[in-house]
């Protein structure tokens, strides 16, 4: 049997990562040094209002209609803006939604391919014409470090996942100061999203020592700094700790990816438009406890990294993790988001169909297991 140490793994990173307070100034300087003069910024409405922080040269177009949990229609709007701008550079400026749309806006226009053509792994055939820069303004998705983009199919209400090396950023600028304005509830939810990336990679069937160190350190960083950032949004050190945790979570996503936690959380976003981070926070304790019997040592390491008491029984693992999330201010009940008991079977069907993630889980997850988690969370 091949050990984790001898198993091959693809460690793909952005060509240039700039990290630290004030590093946002690197964006404009980097663009100027390369002589680019046509730039498209893909941002949500809030970040569109502070594009000047990027100090971009030349003709700067801004697509400011990024929606939370963007769907195919929102993507088409972004692609139309990219075509009109004829941009040499595409900048994703915001959370995961902005950065995911920026990835697709950098590869699809002029390629002859549609979103339907590129769903899956490495189906982008034409490369990309535009340089890609990613500038996160939340600490959660880690999208700046990866090669995946997710868009909701409005017909099936499922996530369409695109993975391509052509969507890897040429430059990722992680400036923790950009997250100082994030309110406590969003800080909590996005922080637990970063945590979920690290935990799901660490307890994954594909877990690898080359990723374990990022995963465990990301968990430790969230456990240490997230409560401080929630208590004082202006705590720059705490914000930097969370930004680093989010980046490490992004490193985990490419070669290992997530597992049942994200699969079970996705229907909350696609059906009920629950923010991705909030959905992951609600589901996190349920999946951690479900997997505990088959990855006991790794679950113990997760609890220790979070500063939580040791626990062997699934019920105790759940209690500790759930109280920790609730203590951050995360909403831990589906009913608070308008989900009713009648909705749960359909949600379980949808989550159980996400094999690209469930097949990574260390414990087999049946449709009834997912339904039981939803009922417990109602």
Question: Which terms summarize this structure?
Answer:
378 residues, alpha/beta, six-stranded parallel β-sheet, three-stranded mixed β-sheet, 9 strands
Report the mean per-residue pLDDT as an integer: 94
Cα gyration radius (Å):
20 Å
Distance between the termini: 41 Å
In percent, how much strand structure appears in the residues?
Answer: 5-15%
SSE sequence, one letter per element: EHEHEHEHHEEEEEHHHHHHHHHH
Count all strands and give the number: 9
Largest sheet: 6 strands, parallel
Shape: globular
Major sheet strand order: 1-9-6-4-2-3
Describe the structure.
The protein is an alpha/beta fold. It is 48% helix and 11% strand. It contains 15 helices and 9 strands. The chain has a 6-stranded parallel beta sheet with strand order 1-9-6-4-2-3, with helices on both faces. Strand 2 (38-43), helix 2 (45-48) and strand 3 (59-63) form a beta-alpha-beta unit. The radius of gyration is 20 Å and the shape is globular.
Fold topology:
Elements: E1 17-19, H1 25-33, E2 38-43, H2 45-48, E3 59-63, H3 72-85, E4 89-94, H4 96-107, H5 115-118, E5 120-121, E6 131-136, E7 148-152, E8 159-163, E9 171-174, H6 184-202, H7 209-231, H8 236-253, H9 260-272, H10 276-291, H11 296-306, H12 314-327, H13 344-352, H14 355-358, H15 367-377
Helix pairs in contact: 3-4, 6-7, 6-8, 6-10, 7-8, 7-11, 9-10, 9-13, 10-12, 10-15, 13-15
